[in-house]
């Protein structure tokens, strides 16, 4: 026998189920409480940087958009600082960095009004390409799925990015790229299965 | 520059993505291997929620949707516990959001089709933020079991859904709490997505008769464990030394 490490085990995940919106976006579900839903506003005043809109949907293996998912995003401000507890300093005071969307009840489309994030250092100090962390939960998803959204118009930064450049199957990298429409709107669709299955992260 | 990151998740402990006994997972489970990387600032930071967002009834599901002088119907319980990480350290300031069916097993949701009645005084959601010791507590009614469209005769055990934020976005977790002694736990295809019975047992709250409110409510204890953060004696040394 040896000494015990005395570590606890993480609580195992269980699906968010079909009613996650009751708990996380109750006002969206018609339950008038809390004075509003958390995560609906990422900008609490005039923000620094370029304001953008993110749109997309989550598709299952049959190509059907999920209409009971919840998508959360977490990102740095325009200067590459995370709001709240970034050890490098204070972020834009009018930017929360965190958004939560229940998706449209009919189309499943999520929308975030946010800013384009600045570059954030990787573990070795090298700058990563601008990116937004996504977390997707829904009925039928047993453990919340994490991925990242990068910007298709950041060609040079993406090519130098320490994660994107090390992906073995480079033909799958486009699944992580949001496409600009030229008016400040970026489209990022997430596919759970199929030829264009999004790269999900174990991170 | 970087913190030391979070422990890797134990994929044998969590349910796999594809669990055919839970039919909805079949078309919603990614099929390709996930991309593994150590955490960086992008996951080691996370949103911070202040206690100032909370209203006085946010953690009282018996009253937070009820009309004045009314209360939700059902067995009154207190649910309490701590949010810890895998090293056993408490996680203060963690936002815990909960949702559940009413005592008859019915959710307040437009897509809900179970014939059990709505309780006009029960909304089914609550939230709380852990204190400096990682402790949380809320008051509710014990939810009922209910049938759900999966197999021809599948029932969910009584359960409360939990959404938990840690200090880093890498710790983000949604899970469910079950009740000690419920024989329905072991019949449920969603519980059955977890392979290891010890992992299932870690989601079963214990009846605690020392925390009851006399002549009012019973108590159940439910601790939640989030991913551990690495800590090392050498953490202040520069990279490469």
From TrEMBL, chain A:
Q: Which CDD domains match?
A: 3_4-PCD_alpha (cd03463)
Report the top EC class in one word: oxidoreductase
Give the record's keywords alphabetically: Dioxygenase, Oxidoreductase
Q: Recall the GO molecular function terms of this protein's record.
A: protocatechuate 3,4-dioxygenase activity
Q: Which InterPro entries match?
A: Intradiol_dOase_C, Intradiol_dOase_core, Intradiol_RC_Dioxygenase, Protocat_dOase_a
Do you know which Pfam families this protein is assigned to?
Answer: Dioxygenase_C
Q: What is its EC number?
A: 1.13.11.3
Give yes or no: UniProt keyword Nucleus. Answer: no
* All residue ranges annotated as the Intradiol ring-cleavage dioxygenases domain in the record: 54-82
Which PANTHER family does this entry report, sorted A to Z?
A: DIOXYGENASE, PUTATIVE (AFU_ORTHOLOGUE AFUA_2G02910)-RELATED, PROTOCATECHUATE 3,4-DIOXYGENASE ALPHA CHAIN
The UniProt similarity line reads: Belongs to the intradiol ring-cleavage dioxygenase family.
Q: What is this protein called?
A: Protocatechuate 3,4-dioxygenase subunit alpha
The organism that produces this protein has a lineage beginning with:
Bacteria, Pseudomonadati, Pseudomonadota, Alphaproteobacteria, Rhodobacterales
Q: Which gene holds the coding sequence for this protein?
A: pcaG
């Amino acid at each position: 026998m040896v000494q015990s490490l005395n570590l606890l085990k993480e609580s195992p995940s269980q699906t968010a189920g079909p009613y996650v919106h009751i708990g996380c976006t109750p006002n969206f579900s018609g339950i008038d409480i809390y004075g509003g839903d958390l995560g609906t506003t990422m900008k609490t005043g005039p923000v620094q940087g370029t304001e953008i809109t993110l749109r997309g949907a989550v598709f299952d293996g049959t190509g059907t958009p999920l209409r009971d998912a919840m998508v959360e995003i977490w990102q740095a401000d325009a200067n590459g600082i995370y709001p709240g507890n970034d050890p490098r300093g204070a972020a834009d005071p009018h930017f929360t960095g965190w958004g939560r969307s229940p998706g449209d009840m009919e189309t499943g489309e999520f929308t975030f009004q946010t800013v384009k994030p600045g570059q954030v250092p990787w573990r070795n100090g090298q700058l990563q390409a601008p990116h937004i962390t996504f977390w997707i939960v829904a009925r039928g998803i047993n453990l919340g799925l994490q991925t990242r959204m990068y910007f298709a118009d950041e060609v040079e930064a993406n090519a130098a990015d320490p994660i994107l450049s090390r992906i073995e199957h480079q033909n799958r990298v486009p699944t992580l790229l949001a496409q600009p429409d030229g008016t400040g709107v970026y489209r990022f669709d997430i596919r759970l299965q199929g030829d264009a299955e999004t790269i999900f992260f174990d991170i | 520059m970087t913190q030391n990151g979070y422990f890797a998740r134990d994929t044998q402990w969590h349910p796999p993505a594809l669990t055919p006994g839970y039919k909805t997972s079949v078309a919603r489970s990614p099929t390709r291997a996930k991309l593994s990387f150590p955490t960086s600032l992008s996951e080691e930071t996370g949103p911070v929620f202040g206690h100032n967002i909370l209203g006085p009834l946010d953690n009282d599901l018996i009253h937070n949707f009820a009309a004045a002088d009314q209360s939700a119907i059902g067995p009154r319980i207190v649910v309490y516990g701590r949010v810890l990480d895998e090293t056993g350290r408490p996680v203060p300031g963690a936002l815990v959001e909960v949702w559940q069916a009413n005592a008859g097993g019915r959710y307040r949701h437009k897509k809900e089709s179970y014939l059990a009645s709505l309780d006009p005084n029960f909304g089914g959601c609550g939230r709380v933020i852990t204190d400096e010791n990682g402790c949380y507590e809320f008051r509710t009614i014990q939810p009922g079991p209910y049938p759900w469209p999966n197999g021809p005769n599948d029932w969910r055990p009584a359960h409360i859904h939990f959404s938990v934020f840690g200090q880093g976005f890498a710790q983000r977790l949604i899970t469910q709490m079950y009740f000690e002694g419920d024989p329905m736990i072991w019949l449920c295809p969603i519980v059955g997505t977890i392979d290891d019975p010890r992992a299932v047992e870690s989601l079963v709250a214990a009846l605690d008769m020392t925390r009851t409110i006399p002549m009012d409510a019973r108590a159940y204890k439910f601790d939640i464990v989030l991913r551990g953060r690495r800590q090392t004696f050498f953490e202040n040394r520069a990279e490469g030394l």
